[in-house]
Every structure is written in structure tokens, then in C-alpha cells.
Design a protein that fits this description.
309 residues, alpha+beta, Ubiquitin-like (UB roll), Cathepsin B, Chain A, 3 domains, six-stranded mixed sheet, 28% helix, 23% strand
């Protein structure tokens, strides 16, 4: 029987379960999860995978390998409904019948790092930045941010030359203010400086984090998720139901959580294949497949406005 290691997340922190095997039953897993928290066995709700989806734990006799669990999986433990009169400071209940033991990872963080989905409307970068700065999804913030970027680029033609922008400075300034134009690394760097905050872009295609403003020693950091085409903001869902989007730059625990999220997303192939995704030219309405075809179309026609499709 192969031993499996599972990472368990709930709103009170993170834990690692090492002593179950692929032959252990769902009932045994539920006993462990209940002992880990104040959630009764009958109220346990589990999410797994990326993006998280419900895990079927309705049959206590099923083995873990039969419900698709394998070593390295991350489980998110939730409660089916709010339980009244819960004693939050109650010590952890001992495991029954010696089913399993666990070890806690350092001091538990009271929350889970989550993705907030924003519309794929070609302004997803700006909407995501607006969310991490203000805590709400506002699809109109892109207009101001595009103006900020255009003014910055126009004021420094030496730095933002044609070689950097891929087009003449004035053309870029007109282009970026169009609602159909996408934002990327140049735009993130400018907005990081303007707002005086480090912007960490979690790249799920390459499982890395690109930090904009890292050299400025900003005191605060926000996180954005990038799948190769689309941006979404990341936030910490706290145990009291609150949402945190801005973190101290020295908080490396949340940074490591973001790194792990990038690796989990890549291993689950939650990224956009740039050679296969579909675009639509917003000038001539032609559909294109992949970035190479889009670049070829732009070179041949001088059309540079593309939309996600």
C-alpha cells in the first residue's frame, strides 16, 4: 500500500497529513479532517484540484484511490453550513483508533489564498489591479489606468522608445487608451510605480513569480495571477469572512503560498496554450489561432487590435 501525503487547508491554517495510504477509506479521511477542526463529520465539505471543485466523500467505504486522491493533493476543508455555539479555542480532538497523525506547518495562517475571477474583456489586468487596490471588481477603472500609462509613456520618450514599445511612442499612447488593447509587463511596471506598491505576477504557465517594483523597496505587495493570456487578482479569504488583498512586503509566508499556487496551477495545466488559444482581430473580424498567427496577421495588415475569444 502506497503512503500518500495530503496538504490540508482551512480558514484556521494549513496542515500536512502523511500517514494515510491509497487504501485508506473516505471514512478514515473524514475522521482526520474532523479532528483537525471543529467541523463535525456530518458537516465536512472538501474541495480539491485547481480550480477547486467538490470532492465526493459521500461513501465512507470507498478507498482514497477510488475517489481520485493521490499524493501531493491539496484539500480545502470547509463546513457545509454555519455551526452555532462552536468553541473556537477548543483543543484539537485526538484521532480515533489511531487512524492517522499530522504535523502542523509553522504558525497557521488564518486564511486561504484565493483567485477572484474578473471578466475576460481585454481590460482584465486593469480590473485585477483595481480589485487588489480597492477590494471590489470595477470594470470601469481601466479608463483612468490607461490614461495614467499614456501620460507616463508620452513624458519619457527616451525610455519608452519604439524598440521597447514595438511601435512609435505616440502610436502606443493612442493604442493603450483603446478599451480593446491588452495590458502586460510594461503596463504593470508603470502602475506599480504610480501607486507605489510592489505587484507580484504569479505566472502559472512557467510556475514563477515576476515582481514589479521589487527594486523600489515598497512596503506593501499585491498579487496577480496570469495564465499566459488572462489576469485575475489574488486575495486572502480570512477566517472571519474578510478579504485581504494588500500584504506587507516582508510577509514571505503569503509569498510562498503564492509560489505554491503557481506550481499547483502548472501541474494541473491551468494555463493558456499560446499556440492554440483563439483571438479575433477587432479591425477586420478575422479569427486567429495562437500568438504566432496573430503576429503574422499584424505584420501583414498592420492590424494591432485583438480580442480574447
Amino acid at each position: 500500500m502506497a503512503a500518500i501525503a495530503l496538504k490540508i487547508k482551512n480558514k484556521d491554517g494549513q496542515h500536512v497529513l502523511k500517514d494515510l495510504t491509497s487504501e485508506s477509506t473516505v471514512g478514515e479521511l473524514k475522521i482526520f479532517l474532523s479532528s483537525l477542526s471543529d467541523v463535525g463529520i456530518e458537516r465536512i465539505h472538501v474541495l480539491f484540484g485547481y480550480p477547486p471543485k467538490p470532492l465526493d466523500i459521500s461513501n465512507d467505504n470507498k478507498k482514497l484511490n477510488e475517489i481520485g486522491l493521490k499524493t501531493g493533493e491539496t484539500l480545502i476543508l470547509e463546513e457545509k453550513q454555519v455551526q452555532e455555539n462552536v468553541q473556537k479555542n477548543e483543543p484539537q480532538k485526538p484521532l480515533e483508533n489511531g487512524v492517522a497523525s499530522h504535523e502542523t506547518i509553522g504558525s497557521c495562517r488564518p486564511g486561504i489564498l484565493m483567485k477572484k475571477v474578473v471578466p475576460p474583456d481585454n481590460s482584465c489586468l486593469f480590473t485585477s489591479i483595481g480589485f487588489v487596490l480597492n477590494g471590489n471588481v470595477d470594470t470601469s477603472v481601466h479608463t483612468l489606468m490607461r490614461q495614467i500609462i499614456a501620460m507616463e509613456v508620452a513624458s519619457d520618450r527616451e525610455t519608452y522608445n519604439e524598440g521597447v514599445l514595438g511601435q512609435p511612442n505616440a502610436d502606443y499612447c493612442a493604442w493603450i487608451q483603446q478599451p480593446s488593447s491588452w495590458g502586460g509587463a510594461i503596463e504593470v511596471a508603470i502602475l506599480s510605480r504610480f501607486y507605489g506598491i510592489e505587484m507580484a505576477v504569479v505566472d502559472t504557465l512557467n510556475a514563477i513569480i515576476n515582481r514589479f517594483g521589487e527594486d523600489k523597496n515598497y512596503g506593501q505587495r499585491v498579487f496577480l495571477l496570469f495564465d499566459g493570456v488572462h489576469y485575475d487578482p489574488l486575495y486572502l479569504e480570512q477566517s472571519d469572512g474578510g478579504v485581504q488583498t494588500i500584504f506587507p512586503s516582508e510577509d514571505m509566508e503569503i509569498y510562498r503560498e503564492a509560489e505554491q499556487l503557481a506550481h499547483e496551477a502548472k501541474s494541473s495545466r491551468q494555463f493558456t496554450d499560446l499556440n492554440k488559444f483563439t483571438l479575433k482581430c477587432l479591425v477586420c473580424n478575422k479569427f486567429l489561432t495562437g500568438q504566432v498567427e496573430a503576429q503574422r496577421h499584424a505584420k501583414e495588415t498592420k492590424h494591432t487590435n485583438f480580442g480574447e475569444f
